[in-house]
């Protein structure tokens, strides 16, 4: 039977590089029939293109909104700006619009209304005021930058200011009419049968191509904006459900549509070997996609860390203060006079007091030998940013009863733990290949071996399998990773999600996870430790005396937990942290609460 030809003469169809009967697009399954991707794409592309735009300019949307009222449940800003004048907003009930934007790299200041403000902010106020009678909240104008006590009070209210606004406008100057049309088109494609069939099959490349129109340059331009890289803009964009991205000429895109498209982009970024998609790294796409989760509910601290700390800030303190709103930790009062080490320690202490120990998911990347006193368990942005990407496994905290704290000195952080017993056997330090061989001799299967070695850094085998739509990939993941490690498989030679002239085959698209794994323990000596309660693999360390494994109150959705290695000689100092594969029906002690450093 003759295959259908790919359409020609339509520029958007060139993304598949098909000519006449020569298909390079690969096949997809739709309604139990195998069809070329390009055919489904063309059908849905025409469907979406024939629709009229539903996007309106932001001022019309707000003007048409029924009964816009000021929110009364949130703390209000001290000042807003209206008609070129500073107005009292704290004692007023009038609605206001909050503005999110990236400050100029080298801002110019001028005196205005008795305070020092940026010229950039004044230009923004002048421009937006022409389109609305609402008061505007713009930080560089409405917060007195030279009045430190007032500034700290207003920063503590930052999340409420955005939550309580009538709308939030995120100023992204790279947006134009073309960008607006491309985003609207992409969200339309995601809602149709073709994309749904690709998603059901786990076809990461096909999903990406449908949503992005084959890496449309408009997406390069949109996501090149500095606005996406700043720490404060994360919470500013997710706390209010009436939030828009706005271009220089008031082009308006609902941020929810942009984040909808970021999902297939982030999945594609994770499963391709080259860490560059639409001009951005997989770290970047991790951060952007997680914004959609933050819009639905508060984020556990560990999740927020993996998102916000992949961004940038001029002042290190802001790496903490900018995530308080999305984590509902506003009881922490900003204070830039505090040592930054104390700010980070206070952050994890405050989260822990609410029963949120999800931040421990990042403690395994801390270099304990280099950590300063009292900070060996506390993750900091540098350690998060240095990891290739967030592990795809979601870690949740386990509720434990509040207990009295055993002090291990004046420094450290309080962590509940449950002993799984003393170390009954531990191996001599080995490289990664030696540890894999050792675990195989101990009768561990490929899933457990992968999880012990790479579960924290890359994700559990079951979650990798789910992400790429495969079936039982653990052994293939291990084979590929060890091939990369010993050099029998070269990174540039492996297939990358079978794109291009090869048809889609279910279960592929995991090469990036294997290449990430190959880098995790490079030049590192590992040790296997076994107690009555389970087994873990951790880097070789300098602890002495009898060691114990302690279960931590952080686990995956399937119940696999994290554990601490603690030696009797260093009772209040953790030696290492890793994933623990538990033994069935094994005792695991009772919960204790100790201040570890």
Describe this structure in words.
This protein has 597 residues and is α+β, with helices and mostly antiparallel strands. Among the domains are: 11-52 and 174-294, no CATH class; 69-165, no CATH class. The chain contains 23 helices and 19 strands. The strands form 5 sheets. It has a 6-stranded antiparallel β-barrel. Helix 7 (177-190) crosses helix 12, helix 8 packs antiparallel against helix 9 and helix 20 packs across helix 22 (474-486). The protein is flat, with a radius of gyration of 26 Å. Residues 1-10 have low confidence and may be disordered.
Uncertain segments are 1-10
Decide which structural class fits the backbone: alpha+beta
Helicity, in percent? 25-40%
Average pLDDT for all residues:
88
Number of strands: 19
Shape: flat
Q: How is the main sheet built?
A: 6 strands, antiparallel, barrel
Strand order of the largest sheet: 13-14-15-18-17-16
The proportion of residues in beta strands is 15-25%
Total helices: the number is 23
* Distance N to C terminus: 69 Å
Rg for CA atoms: 26 Å
Pfam families: HET
InterPro entries: HET, HetReg/Transcr_Mod
Domain Heterokaryon incompatibility: 96-236
Protein name: Heterokaryon incompatibility protein-domain-containing protein
């Amino acid at each position: 039977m003759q295959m259908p030809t790919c359409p020609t003469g339509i520029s958007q169809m060139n993304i598949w590089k098909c000519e006449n009967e020569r298909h390079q697009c690969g096949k997809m399954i739709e309604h139990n029939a195998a069809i070329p991707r390009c055919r489904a794409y063309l059908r849905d592309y025409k469907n979406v293109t024939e629709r009229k735009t539903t996007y309106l300019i932001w001022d019309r949307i707000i003007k048409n909104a029924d009964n816009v009222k000021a929110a009364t449940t949130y703390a209000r800003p001290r000042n807003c700006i209206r008609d070129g004048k500073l107005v009292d907003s704290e004692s007023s009930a009038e609605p206001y619009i909050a503005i999110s934007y990236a400050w100029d790299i080298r801002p110019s200041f001028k005196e205005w209304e008795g305070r020092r403000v940026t010229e950039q902010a004044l230009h923004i106020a002048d421009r937006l005021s022409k389109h609305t009678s609402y008061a505007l909240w713009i930080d560089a104008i409405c917060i007195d930058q030279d009045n430190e006590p007032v500034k700290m009070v207003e920063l503590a209210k930052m999340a409420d200011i955005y939550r309580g606004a009538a709308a939030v406008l995120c100023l992204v100057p790279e947006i134009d009419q073309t960008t607006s049309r491309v985003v609207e088109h992409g969200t339309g494609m995601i809602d149709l049968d073709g994309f749904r069939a690709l998603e059901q099959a786990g076809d990461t490349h096909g999903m990406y191509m449908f949503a992005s129109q084959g890496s449309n340059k408009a997406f390069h331009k949109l996501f090149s904006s500095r606005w996406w890289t700043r720490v404060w803009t994360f919470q500013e964009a997710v706390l209010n459900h009436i939030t828009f991205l706005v271009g220089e000429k008031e082009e308006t895109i609902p941020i929810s549509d942009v984040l909808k498209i970021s999902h297939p982009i982030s999945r594609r970024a994770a499963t391709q070997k080259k860490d560059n998609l639409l001009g951005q790294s997989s770290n970047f796409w991790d951060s952007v996609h997680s914004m959609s989760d933050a819009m639905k509910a508060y984020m556990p601290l560990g999740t927020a860390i993996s998102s916000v700390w992949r961004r940038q800030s001029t002042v290190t303190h802001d790496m903490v203060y900018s995530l308080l709103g999305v984590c509902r930790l506003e009881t922490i009062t900003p204070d830039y006079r505090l040592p930054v080490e104390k700010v980070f320690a206070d952050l994890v202490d405050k989260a822990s007091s609410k029963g949120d120990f999800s931040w421990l998911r990042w403690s395994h990347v801390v270099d304990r030998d280099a950590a300063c006193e009292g900070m060996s368990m506390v993750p900091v942005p540098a350690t998060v940013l240095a990891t290739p990407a967030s592990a795809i496994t979601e870690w949740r905290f386990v509720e434990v009863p509040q207990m009295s704290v055993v002090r291990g000195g004046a420094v450290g952080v309080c962590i509940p733990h449950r002993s799984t017993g003393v170390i009954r056997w531990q191996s001599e330090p080995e490289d990664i290949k030696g540890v894999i061989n050792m675990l195989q001799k101990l009768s561990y299967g490929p899933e457990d071996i992968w999880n012990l070695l790479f579960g924290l850094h890359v994700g559990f085998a079951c979650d990798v399998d789910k992400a790429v739509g495969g079936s039982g990939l653990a052994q293939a993941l291990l084979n590929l990773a060890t091939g990369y490690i010993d050099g029998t498989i070269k990174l540039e030679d492996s297939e990358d999600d079978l794109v291009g002239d090869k048809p889609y085959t279910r279960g592929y698209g995991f090469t990036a996870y294997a290449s990430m794994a190959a880098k995790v323990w490079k030049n590192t000596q590992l040790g296997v430790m076994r107690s009555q309660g389970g087994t873990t693999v951790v880097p070789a360390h300098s602890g002495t005396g009898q060691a114990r494994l302690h279960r931590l109150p952080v686990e995956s959705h399937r119940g696999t937990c994290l554990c601490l290695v603690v030696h009797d000689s260093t009772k209040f100092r953790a030696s290492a942290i890793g994933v623990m594969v538990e033994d069935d029906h094994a005792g695991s002690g009772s919960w204790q609460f100790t201040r570890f450093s």
